[in-house]
Specification:
Helices cover 45% and strands 26% of the residues. It is α+β, with helices and mostly antiparallel strands. Strands 3-2-1-4 form a 4-stranded mixed sheet. It is globular, with a radius of gyration of 13 Å. The termini are close together. The model has no long low-confidence stretch (mean pLDDT 85).
Length: 104
């Protein structure tokens, strides 16, 4: 991950942590692997303990940080319970994120 992407990720995580009970945050995909790409899409995965309307707030923060940095942040949002106790824990995307994602 280049310095600019790392800085954006840290800011996104900071704002999320102020708004919701954040448990885990990872960047994944081509940006995390520092692949040369013209894509302005930036992907992250996060796990949190839900509160009322938290999911909408998470997407709003992603939009705001993305707009400020002229990128699209595409978060995958999972609750702690979904990751630990549902069939989602065996999904290929979560396995990939766990293996290749960069935890901040």
């Amino acid at each position: 991950m280049n310095l600019r992407d790392y800085s954006i990720a840290r800011e996104f995580k900071r704002r999320l942590a102020e708004a919701v009970e954040l448990i885990d945050f990872k960047v994944y995909g081509s940006k995390a692997r520092a692949m040369k790409t013209n894509s302005r899409t930036w992907m992250s995965s996060l796990k949190w303990r839900p509160g009322p309307k938290d999911k909408d707030l998470i997407y709003e923060i992603a939009w705001e940080v993305g707009l400020e940095n002229l990128i699209v942040i595409s978060p995958l949002v999972f609750t702690e319970d979904e990751i630990e106790n549902s069939p989602l824990r065996a999904s290929p995307i979560l396995i990939n994120i766990n293996e290749e994602g960069i935890r901040l």
